[in-house]
Design goal:
- This protein is α/β, with parallel strands linked by helices and 223 residues long.
- It has two domains: 150 residues, 3-Layer(aba) Sandwich (Rossmann fold), CATH 3.40.50.150; 51 residues, Single Sheet (N-terminal domain of TfIIb), CATH 2.20.25.
- It is 24% helix and 35% strand.
- It has seven helices and twelve strands.
- The chain has a seven-stranded mixed β-sheet, with helices on both faces. A five-stranded mixed β-sheet has the order 1-10-9-8-7, with no helix packed on it.
- It is globular and about 45 Å long.
Length: 223
């Protein structure tokens, strides 16, 4: 049976809550866990339904989970401190050993908002802490085509309507789980290494480690 389209509850950016509730944890938690002290406090921006939050809690970290969607936060584990807020506007008045900015949030097209996202990261990380960031891999953007890119037998993720124009990339993300299907259009700005370094510098951060095409760790500048 072909999966049927299911709108359901969605975050302000269109992310389908039910699909993200079903999605398995990625490697986000391990990447950050390996670069900060044991049991260190973590600030997770854009936590969604808490799949990475759970993994961080299981590894012994105290987690402050931030999202602007009440529907997403409703699924975040009670052991985390939950904060409903826009990342750009947040000022918790404290700093963390680890800050996580995943889900390609850095690829937002609006340059002012992108700068505000990174400024919030810089304003909440300890002097020797780590900001773990996931960007949309430029190599993937250059070769992406319509079709399924992930299928584990339970969850399928793909895209259609791929378009490229200079540094801008757009598509419709297609999510399937069992007989349910969700679609989420998105438009992003592709950021190469030089662009990342410039954006970080403007926010008082620098690259500490390039992990792969998508992930890197940043830290405050020495100045």
């Amino acid at each position: 049976m072909d999966p049927s389209h299911d709108a359901g509850a969605a975050a302000p950016d269109g992310s389908p809550v039910e699909f993200y509730r079903r999605l398995h944890p990625g490697r986000d938690a391990d990447l950050l866990h390996d670069r900060i002290p044991e049991r260190a406090a973590v600030l997770e921006f854009g936590c969604g339904t808490g799949r990475t939050t759970r993994a961080l809690l299981e590894r012994g970290h105290a987690v402050v989970a931030v999202d602007e969607s009440a529907e997403m936060l409703a699924h975040v584990p009670a052991d985390a401190e939950k904060v409903r807020a826009c990342i750009e506007d947040l000022d918790l008045g404290r700093r963390f050993a680890g800050v996580l900015l995943a889900s390609h949030l850095i690829n937002i097209r609006d340059e002012t908002r992108r700068g505000a996202l990174l400024a919030s990261c810089a304003g909440h990380v300890e002097t020797e802490g780590a900001v773990m960031v996931q960007r949309f891999d430029p190599a993937l953007a250059a070769t992406a085509t319509d079709g399924v890119s992930y299928d584990d037998g339970e969850i399928r993720i793909g895209m259609r309507g791929v378009r490229r124009e200079g540094r801008d990339f757009s598509a419709v993300a297609v999510f399937e789980a069992g007989d349910r299907r969700w679609e989420q259009p998105y438009e992003i700005r592709i950021l190469d290494d030089a662009a990342i370094e410039a954006e970080l510098a403007a926010a008082g951060l620098r690259v500490r480690e390039w992990i792969d095409g998508a992930w890197f760790a940043a830290t405050p500048t020495d100045e």
